[in-house]
Amino acid sequence: MSDLLKFNLLQAEKAIKNKEFTSVELTNAYIKAIDDTNSLGAYIETVKEKSLDMALNSDKNIADGVARPLEGLPIGVKDMFCTKGIKTTASSKILDNFYPTYESTVTQKLWDDGAVMLGKLSCDEFAMGSSNETAAKGNVKNPWLLDKQVSPGGSSGGSASAVASRSALAATGTDTGGSIRQPAAFCGITGLKPTYGRCSRWGIVAFSSSLDQAGPLTRTVGDSALMLNSMAGYDKKDSTSADLKMPDLIDCLDKGVKGKKIGIPKEYTQDGISNDIIKIFETSINWLKDAGAEIVPVSLPHTKYALPVYYIIAPAEASSNLARYDGVRFGVRKEGQSLDEMYELTRGNGFGEEVKRRIMIGTYVLSSGYYDAYYLKAQKVRRLIKQDFDNVFEKVDFLLTPSTPTTAFSLGEKQDPLTMYLNDIFTVPASLAGLPGISLPVGLDKSGLPIGMQLIARAFDEAGLISTAQVIENYAEFNFIADGAAK
Amino acid sequence: MNQVSLNNSKKLKPGQILGDTGLWEMVIGLEIHAQVSSKSKLFSGASATYGAGANTNVSLVDAAMPGMLPVINQYCVEQAVKTGLALNAQINNYSVFDRKNYFYADLPQGYQISQFTKPIVGEGEIIVDLDEGKQTTIGIERLHLEQDAGKSLHDQHPTKTYIDLNRTGVALMEIVSKPDIRSPQEAGLFVKKIRSILRYVGSCDGNMEEGSLRADCNVSVRRAGEEFGTRCEIKNLNSIRFINQAIQSEAERQVEILESGGSINQETRLFDASTGETRSMRSKEDAHDYRYFPDPDLLPLEFEDSWVKSLKESLPELPDTLRERLVLDYGITPYDAAVLVEEKDYVNFYEKAALGRDGKLTANWMISELFGALKKENLSLLNSPISPESLAELITLITDEVISGKIAKDIFAEMMISKKKPIEIVKDKGLEQVSDDNEILKLIESVIADNQDKVKQYLSGKDKLFGFFVGQVMKVSQGKANPGIVNKLLKENLK
User: What is the pTM assigned to this prediction?
Assistant: First the structure.
């Protein structure tokens, strides 16, 4: 392995500024790593020339003493983010020829802060999936237990696989029901889903507007802090973005957890959880206790409804959000004899099975005669779920849960959509409540696959989330490297 | 239809139809789509100007590019609230934007952002002036904000349709009436009244030719006192004449069906201006399921009472109160006042001309002479060759008895052509009225001298000849003699 790949984001940031190596050197190391790990399928588009141009510019800034917060640090971008002049497909055939003329707010902020773009990362089609298997360009592989062909999770599977295989120093992701946290858990890295409204959604291909939120996938908690510092912020172009200043998350490192109350929701330790995960979950509780936190058993009684509510609301919004992919103005068009036939051919060919399934579910639950029984009821239950969280956050500061009920499953293992949906059972509730959550690696299961723990905080308490997550990180000392990582 | 012959319809009140089985009445409700007078669109910064080159006023949001998000235009919200206040309507401090989902090539998002269950403005009412000074009150059901769609051009290519997205996303106010309207005439007057209010408020220019005001008409028929019948909706009427024609022919069509034992299918219909009839566009069964749901890209619209109050205070004087004031301030008839308040421009013109003068006379001159002349020349008041100042001068000349009413008409005609000031015309042509007793007396004497035979007849009791002498005197004075004085002096001298 190139020595340069050993540096995590925070370390590389310091090393570059201290001129231990240049951004061009670091970027070249990652470009080589991308080639070396090509078989994982994490990248669907690389932009080597642009990467090196940006790196060169960063080196100039460092030489001139005007380094920005992420100066010269090479990162990957989930293909849900529109990137100016660079193909953006949301991993869908229907956008196979789409080159945006604009840059998403979040990626623009990263470039403005000096980050170097490595390329676009695969994901589930329109971020709909939990295994990265719905991507038009095919599976992404998890770099762990490479010979076993394990899923990296989804939908930010390309992002997680790239960070875990060290072909990106960090990556952006989007999380709608767990799409950052679940792949982070599967790939042994850290993934942070901020509070809904913390990052602008402008320029991110919309899946479910009331749930979508951008966040970082990184090697460490500190790396997530550094990256989210740049990604977050109010954007007047997104009416749902929050006009609230976020504290500098780097200042939140090494704050400890003394005196904090950690809630353990009883609903998150039920049947279907693997024993290895239960065991390390209990260990994690003890770490926090040891660090001076108070552990409080709590209940979120409506948790069992979270998954059905999510699979009504998200498809409903998606069915409407995806109506614009009609072959009229952009994207791949399949001509027909009439407008309706053109729609049918374009959308029939352009969308994959899972996307079609969700469009149909969404169309159904919004239909006249079914709206009240499904969509409206789901909205009501969503409020109850949020109320559950509001109630427990009067008593505790954070919630600790496993990130997923199992470690990464094999590619092709989950054929039944319902079984697949069940994988999001621990991440979906916080999404419905709009709360920030982080998944960080705490150990390996018997087969050698990473296990992630999830912390959930009050709305807009990313600062507390970082402080607490770092405590667990320090105890866990997760220093394993995936066998499929760049050598 | 044959049953409604012209002979019968003379006896019918507007809105009534006499069928084979008796009298029917119409029940009409309107949905008016008024384009908000705003420089930019409802949710994007793109220009909302009419008449730009195809697809030049289109932002990334309007074209519904991936990841684009709507941001509400505050100005449009203000205009909707002001309009609601002018319609005496409930202002909802909490309203929600919904998505109305359907596929069409000129609807880039695949949904229209509208307001479904929680509109920005609730119930209200307006007064509509009918003939002979009668008035009726028409209820307003709601007003909501929504996006316009783009334009499909089907006639540019043998097999393809061209799309112009300039109009996409332009802000519309949909004003929905209650089914309180009972005749095509009332419907037309309702639209005129709404247009007038919109223009006063400044929230819509009301220009029906450019499509900034158009109406959908819901029409049903029933026998007097019965329940409402099944309605049909006639889409997209863009003139008051078409509204009248479409409602009348649609109601007649429905009566014919009902009387021949049929029933009305609830459906959407289109008006064909060339035939003057409506035809089916789509039936209820084919109606879209719009799958309305709250737009998750937008927060609910919420505002304070104090903000509404400040908007209320900023409202200009509205037609109804203005009309009352004109009657009081200028002593004109309510009818004349109603004509003058129809357009804000009329009132502005009138008040400039009438202030400090004979209000009634000014109103007469403006309504019968000026409006008539402008109509003949196909001019609007804004392009009038006669300014308020000129009309005022003319009125002053009349009331000061410098010129007679008859001469004034000649001067007026001259003003329409030359744009000259009336005083100039009077001077140039020596048209001042002669009110000097001696001068008039001289004219009378010459007329008497030239018509001795008529004088004899008059004196022997043929009183009717008095008018002849007045006419002769006016003639020899070339119309300049003051008719009052002519009358008085003639009486004294014909003895």
Answer: 0.90
